[in-house]
Specification:
Blueprint (H helix, E strand, L loop, with lengths): L2 H30 L4 H11 L11 H4 L17 H15 L15 E8 L8 E8 L8 E10 L2 E9 L6 E7 L2 E8 L10 E10 L3 E11 L13 E8 L13 E5 L6
Antiparallel strand pairs: 1-2, 2-3, 3-4, 5-6, 5-9, 6-7, 7-8, 9-10
């Protein structure tokens, strides 16, 4: 090959030599197992995809539980029929006794107290109303005991008891199915020798019957012992106001105290 041909073919010869070197280098890399870094990362990513942990899905968590509410119904008041009868009938008929001040005998008339108790062993309460009636200037307004029960779904008067002795002061007490009335009377002059005392014991019988079991009377010198037990419940108290003149009788003032439930 002439010098002119060698010069003209030099680039081609250089390219062939360069290509041969690249092929030799590639063969060497294949022989040694070398892999480009990017290729390895992509291969590993493709071979083992990464996954993020997820919380287990359950039906219970996906569905809200219904809220359960408990409705409490108040038990009906077993005394409601009695209280309605008291408010609608008895108080309009008789009025309410005044406990706010010392008053003349006729100032304390009307419904003065009420209590509820199972007096006939029926498992249900009866109602006993204490009404005060004015009987004249010679004594305080006196108690009338009215015993009511439920008969055929109606409030019914079962029995009653009226106090007959004249009293200037008295107390009414209860122990289970017994009532105790303790009264005293001061005569016209107001002198000690005119005092008279009375003890009465009543019983509620299931017949029904409000029966007087015992009555004892005496003067100041032979005042009878109380018939009631020491733990008897005080229901009502009428007192002669001794802070004012006690004679003549028409000028006397009386103080009423009711210890039964508030029914007004």
């Amino acid at each position: 090959m002439s010098g002119e041909e060698a010069t003209r073919n030099a680039p081609l010869i250089a390219a062939v030599i360069l290509l041969g070197l690249l092929c030799a280098a590639g063969g060497y890399l294949l022989y040694t197992g070398w892999v480009p870094p990017q290729t390895v990362a992509e291969s590993e990513s493709a071979a083992m995809p990464e996954t993020e942990p997820t919380a287990p899905q359950t039906t219970a968590s996906a569905t809200a539980k219904p809220v359960q509410t408990t409705v409490t119904t108040a038990a009906p008041d077993p005394h409601a029929p009695y209280l309605a009868y008291l408010e609608d009938t008895l108080i309009p008929e008789s009025g309410s006794a005044d406990t706010t001040a010392a008053l003349p005998a006729d100032g304390h008339t009307g419904i003065a107290g009420v209590f509820f108790a199972d007096l006939r062993d029926t498992g249900a309460d009866d109602m006993v109303v204490i009404r005060l009636d004015y009987t004249g200037e010679s004594c305080a307004a006196l108690p009338v005991l009215l015993w009511y029960g439920i008969e055929h779904d109606n409030v019914t008067l079962l029995d009653m008891f009226e106090v007959k002795p004249q009293w200037s002061a008295y107390c009414i007490r209860r122990d289970e199915t017994s009532l105790y009335l303790s009264g005293e009377f001061l005569g016209e002059s107001g002198e000690a020798d005119t005092w008279r005392f009375t003890e009465i014991e009543l019983a509620f019988r299931p017949d029904p019957d409000l029966t007087m079991l015992n009555m004892v009377q005496g003067s100041l010198s032979d005042r009878p012992a109380p018939l009631y037990p020491d733990d008897a419940e005080l229901l009502l108290e009428m007192q002669l106001d001794t802070a004012l003149p006690v004679a003549p009788m028409k000028e006397r003032r009386y103080i009423l105290r009711d210890y039964t439930r508030d029914f007004s």
